[in-house]
Structure formats: C-alpha cells, structure tokens
Amino acid sequence: MNELRGWLLDIYPEAQVGAALWLIGEDGQRYHLRQPFPVTFYAAGRASTLRRLWRYLQSHPAQPVLKREERQDIFVKSMRTVLAIDVNDPVAQNALFQEIARAFPDLDYFDADVALPLRYAARHRLFPLAYCRVGVDANGQAQTVEPLDTPWDLSPAPPPLRILYMELDADPARNKPTRLSLRSGSFHGPATAEYHLDLDLERPLLINLKAILQRCDPDLLLTTWGDTWLLPHLLERSAALGLPLPLNRDPARQPAHHPEISYFSYGQMVHRGRQVHLFGRCHIDRGNAMMWEDYDLEGALETARVTGLPLQTAARVSPGSGISAMQMVTALREGILVPWHKQQAEQPKTALDLLATDQGGLVYQPLVGLHHDVGGIDFVSMYPGIMVRFNISPETVQGQRPCIQDLEPFASENDLPGLIPLTLAPLLEKRLALKNQLIDLPKWDPRRKIYQARASAHKWLLVTCFGYLGYKNARFGRIEAHEAVTAYGREALLRAKEAAEGLGFTVLHLYVDGLWVKKPDAKEPADFQPLLEEVCRRTGLPISLDGIYDWIAFLPSRVDARVPVANRYFGVFRDGTLKVRGIEARRRDAPPFIAKTQMEMVELLAQGHTPDERQAGVRKALGLLRRRLNRLRSGKTPLEELVVSQRLSREIEAYKSLSPVARSLQQLQAVGKEVRPGQRVRFVYTRGRPGVYAWDLPTPPDARTLDLERYAVLLLRAACTVLEPFGLNPQLIAGLAQNVQTQQLCFKLVPRNERQRREPAVRTAMTTRSRGVSERGTIPD
Amino acid sequence: MGRTLPSITQAFLQEQASFNRFRRALRQSDQRILDDLFASAHQHLAAAAYAAHPLPFETFLLAMLLEEHKRLMRLEALLNDLQGDDLSLEE
C-alpha cells in the first residue's frame, strides 16, 4: 500500500463507489482517489408504518441492510425507536431516500439529506483543505485516511493552491465583454503567466483556453461574473462549436448549475445569482460569493475548514448555512439524529409569557450630542459566549426555567454541554486566540491580514448562530433557546450599566452588547480597568475596552430632532481611528461623491485634540464642503460618483407609488433588462420627468440633464449631519448655497428655544470665517 | 417581519395614533405641546421595552411624568440659584 500526504481539495459522491477525493499531494501531483462510503439514515414514526417500510425495503433492488435501533432525538427527551437503513454508497442512498419519502410521507426521516462532505467530516475528521495522510492501494482506492491537523489550528500549513484568475473587461449586465484576461499564480504568490483572449474569436478562444487549463492545471478558478455569465457562456459556446472545454478535472462529470434565487433575510431582500460548480477543481465567482467583501479568499478557506463545507459551497453560502453545517457535523459525531424536516412547532405560551419573553437585545436611546473622552466597552462575542457559558441549546432549554436574574446556566441531563455549546466552544476559543495574537502582532506583520480575514469569517458564523437558534426552519432551531439568549444578554447589559453607574460613570448609550460611558478624569485605559473587572465579576462574561474616543457624537432622528436614535453616531478613537455608523458615509445607497465628502469632513473634524485645533478642523471641513459644492455645481464631478445604488425590495408590480428606484427599473425593463428583488438598481437624478436615469441603460446619461440642485441638497444634508453636533446650524449650512432652503436640509422640528440657544455657539465658532458666510448663516428663516 | 408582538416602537406609534382624533381637536399651540409630551416618552422606549408591561401606555405616561418632573427639578434648581439660598421654594 502506498502512502500519500497532502491537502484535501474536493470531495463529492460517486455512484457505485462512495466518495471521490481530490488530493493536492505534497509532491505537487493531484490525485483522484476513490473510497467506499456506506451511508446510514433513519426513519421513525408509527410502528405499523415502519413495519410496512421494512417489508418494502426487504425486497428492494438497492438491498439496504435494515436494523432496529434506539437513537437520541434532540427534540424529544427520551430515546426514539428508529429503523436504520444502511446503503452502500451516497448516490444510491439519496435515490432510495427520495423514493421512500414519497412512498411513506408520514414518517420522520433523520440523517437523510446530509451532504457527503459533512458526513465525511463527521466520520473521518477530515475537512476541506485538511492536511492528511492517505493509504492508497494499487487500484487507486483510499484504504485509510488520517487527518494531520484540525480546523482549530491557528496557523495550519497553507495548501499550495494553483489559482487561475479570470477577469472580464466589462460588466456583462451592462455591456458585452470583449476580452478575457487570465493570470495564473499561487496563493499569496506572484503571477507566473498572463494571457489575454478575445471573446469574439470563439474558436481560438476555446482552443487557447483549453491549452491554458491543461498547462496550468489550476486547483481554483477565481473569476468575476464567472457564475452569472462567463462560465455558462463558455460552456454554451463549447457545446455549440463541438470543442470540449475541460473546466472540470474529473472528465466523467459535467459542471453543475444551480439557479439564481431571491429571498428575504434579516429584513432585506437578498439575491444570489446562478452558480457553476466544478468537480475536482473549485470555482469561485468573487461577485457571487456572499461575504467576499468582508473576508476574501483567506476567509472562504477558513469557512470551509471550520464548517466542513466544500470550498465552492463555503464561498457562496450564507454564514447561516455554515453554522448549520457545523451543527450537523457535531450531531452526527455525537450520535444525535439530524432531522430532515423539523416537526416541532413553538410550544404554546400565555400572552403574559409571550410579553415577557418575546424581546430582543436591550437597545437604549443615547444622550444626543457631542461627548468627549468616552470609553467604548464591548462584551466579547456576547451571544455565542452566552450560549456556551449558560449551556443554551434546543435540548437544554426544554421544560427548564433557570433563574436568569441570577445568571444560572441551563442544566444538561448527563452533565455534558448541549449540542450548540459543543459546536461553538472551539470556534469561540479560536476566535479569541486569534484576536489575542492580533494584539501582539506588529502592524507590518503579513500574518495580520490573514488573521483578520479568519477572525472575520468566525465572526459571521458566530453572529448567525444566534439567528439560526430562533429560526423555525433551522434544523436545530428552537425559539425558546433564542429567547433565553436575549434574556441573558439583557441581564448582562443591565448589570454592566449598574456596575458603571456604581463606579460613578455616566452611561451615554447601551447597545445590545456594548456600552459607552464617561466620567470626569477618566481618560486613560487604566481608568476604565476597574469597570471592566467589575462587569466581568458581575456577569461572568469577558468584556473588553474597544477604545477611548476623543469625542463621539450621537445623532438624533432625521425626522424629529427631539428623538434620539440608537445606531446613528460617529466618533474618533485616541489613535485616530474613526467609527462611523448609520450616516451617509456608511450607507451603500449614498452616491460615492456624497459619502466620500462626508467621510473626508469627519476626517477633518477628527484632527486635533485641543478645542482650538478642533475649531480649526470645523473650519477646514466647511472649506472642503464649499469646494465640493462649487465643483458639483460647475459640473466637474465625475458621473459615476453621482450614481445612487438602491436595493430593489420587491417586484415592480408591488410598488404602490413609483419611487426613483422603481422608475429606473421601468427604464431597464423597457430595454429588456431584468433586475430581481434583492439586486441593486443604479441610477442618477435628472431634471424634469421622470427624474431619474438608470445607470445600466445601453447609452450613458447626458451630463447636462443631471439634477445638480438635488445633489447639492443631498450633499448639504450629509454635511449638516456631521457639522450640527459641532454647533453649526442648518441655516448656516444652507447659506452656503443659494436656492437651498433650510427646511430642505432638516425635516426636523427643532424647538424654537433650542434654535436660539444654539446660535451664539455658531457665532463663536464662526468668528474667523469669511463674513459673507457667517452673516448669511445667521439670517433668521 | 415575523413578529408575534409589536415592537415597543410600534406599540408606541399605535398608542400615539390612537389619540389622533383628540390631537386634531386641540388648538395648534396645544398640539405642539402634546407632541412634546410624546417625544419625551419616546426617550424611555428602551426601559419600556424591558419592563414589558401589558398596558404599555401606563409606562409611557409614567415616562412623560418622569421627564416633566426632571424639568421641574431643573427649573427649581435654577430658581434657587437665581434667588439665592435665603429664598427657598418650600416657604
């Protein structure tokens, strides 16, 4: 028997065999191995139906092995009698399961639709990109597999991935691309070769592409618009011209296509384009990978490693599917049944119970205004930390009511942690370890970026774990567990508030897992240390100082200046880092020109530590605003910086009144372009009717038709948001531009007395400004 | 979005809306003051949510009262400052 060492690249079911494994050998070879992989799934239900199923299967051509067993169903306290059905390979198992699920719809099925890579991860502790040792016999069959690292290693040996980058010269949704640029290289390494192919010369394109694929033999195709346009286009042309294109490494398989979907998630329509999955080689479309903007290829690799999902899937699925996969692997390992369709509905509750439990995290109304020397304090991974510490899991919360006010954990029957804490604990530990290492790494260290990408991947998994706990369709979701997490969270945050007030701090704001506090003379991290210790002592949860703000401004609602809102603030930490939430600079629908100007204004405001320096910052920000306004009005702002990009929240028929986004969509539909709910529509504001011009129309908009005044109002409004906390009033800012009325900048009801109170502050702040502006600024409206 | 109970903000807006007829019949000057009262209750929505009282309007009323009393105490202190220590309000 031959022994191989290397990294597991891909794994998928193969009929009559079991599992097909692709290994990146340490010797540089790529190995296609096969391994027998029998699969067991379970059926439970009424004894008479189970007996009928038994008889049905005894004479079945698939010849499954049948057993009667007792297994643990997490939603039922006692063990359940199940019929175990052993099938020789996963393909046959899937076919058999589909067949009997149709024939016996009344039965509950378990472990029935778990993807092979997850079963493999559970049985052999091998996960995508795991470094491993494989014993291979003369027929290329893997006889033994042994992992040599774990998903929890902080610095695993990086797999020597060969990557082929494929880029188009234009967005296919907008213009027909003409050129395909290819670049081959390794992970973290420089490019080794570059090619440019003409997309219109189809025969040479396909022949050359085939030659490049064979020469480079990449492990990973990293494309832009590969899912939505490039790969389907290439495959279609290759079929039409009869020129085979070996995108797959496995010659026996065709690339798999997954259709596009739109769905509703966390109050937003989300759209995911169609997908092309390869066999023996991975394909990732950067535009179609859900979290790509947040964590890059490094994060996708980390997600695959910790969840057990294949790299192609891990890069594309939402973190929710990732955490779900991790829970399934834990369940399979622990012998807990994985339900196919969960049957359990929410337990009945009285109205008063519902009132007490159906609550979210504690979100305060901040003290509006500008505050100096503020400590930002955060619980570290609060919700997952609560699940682990207080043993919150669907099976532990059942029929138990521990005293949340005393922060007592839920008890388990066998004193072992529940399924969810068991799944989360190593992930949480790894995240904390990475974060601790990050603190010690110097700024220039190349590992910083890698660790940050990994920590970011973990963050998303941990965040969604909480949501999935309350999601009725999640396999291991149970609303009571979800409610318990928020209840502990509220208790912990209130204890933190009490601790802060007890130590003489003013609590400016509380937001689910963080608080902002200040105290005269508390200016250094050491001044906040006693508070951290006290909170940790009272709650048992780790808490850390996010940083000390030089200043932070909590903003009121745009609709009513008397009403504070929880998530609109901006500020600057001692080290100059900015934190900006809920204002235009952070909003993806704001035109880049406005977002950028606002952000630069905040940067100017953030300069300087003394009051004099800060006033100078305010003056500089105003100067910048004036220059930008002039540039806008003289038509010098590039068109693409004025593009508004709004998410389509519903089908066009569902719009009651035609908003700008709906009107743009109509224009696109008129030229035959479709946009699905969840996708963004880009447009610019124009004068007259219909007031908008869709950006993705074949002809670009005429710059002369732009509604520059509308942009001026948007710009001044964004400026108001950041300047008002510094004592400048909207009148003054409106005065910067003729034709703009103060009312256009603020729909707010600023009480008259407050307006009068603010004016002197403006005058003092403005003493050094040019007279014209300050005079105009103080004209009463 | 899949909520069984209205959020505290929804509950607040419903309570406020239920007084629309009352508000409409008020003088405009009084309407503004009524709006002010509601705005002052709005500042304590977080506490009202945590309280989870079956009749949220009672909590909102108390929140209005709290803000009123806060203002009263502020004015008292101001008056005391203006009048000097020899003239206490209790007399």
Low-confidence stretches of chain A: 747-781
Total helices of chain A: the number is: 22
Q: What's the CATH class label of the largest domain in chain A?
A: Mainly Alpha
Largest sheet of chain B: none
In CATH, the topology of the largest domain in chain A is named Topoisomerase I, Chain A, domain 4
Determine the fraction of residues in helical runs of chain B and give it as a percent range: over 70%
Shape of chain A: globular
Oligomer: heterodimer
Indicate the radius of gyration of chain A in whole angstroms: 30 Å
Beta-strand segment tally of chain B? 0
Q: How many distinct domains of chain A? A: 4
Instruction: Report the total helices of chain B.
Output: 5
Describe this structure in words.
The complex is a heterodimer of chains A (781) and B (91). Chain A has 781 residues and is α+β, with helices and mostly antiparallel strands. Chain A has four domains: 2-147, 2-Layer Sandwich (DNA Polymerase, Chain A, domain 1); 162-218 and 220-280, no CATH class; 369-413 and 481-582, Alpha-Beta Complex (Palm domain of DNA polymerase), CATH 3.90.1600; 615-777, B family DNA polymerase, thumb domain (Topoisomerase I, Chain A, domain 4), CATH 1.10.132. Helix content of chain A is 38%, strand content 23%. Chain A is built from 22 helices and 27 strands. In chain A, helix 10 crosses helix 11 and helix 16 (611-633) packs antiparallel against helix 18 (708-723). The longest helix of chain A has 24 residues, at 479-502. The radius of gyration of chain A is 30 Å and the shape is globular. The termini of chain A are far apart. Chain B has 91 residues and is mostly helical. Chain B has a domain at 8-64. In chain B, 71% of the residues lie in helices and 0% in strands. In chain B, helix 3 crosses helix 5. Chain B is flat, with a radius of gyration of 17 Å. Chain B starts with 7 loop residues before the first helix and ends in an 8-residue tail after the last helix. Chains A and B meet through helix 9 of A and helix 3 and helix 4 of B.
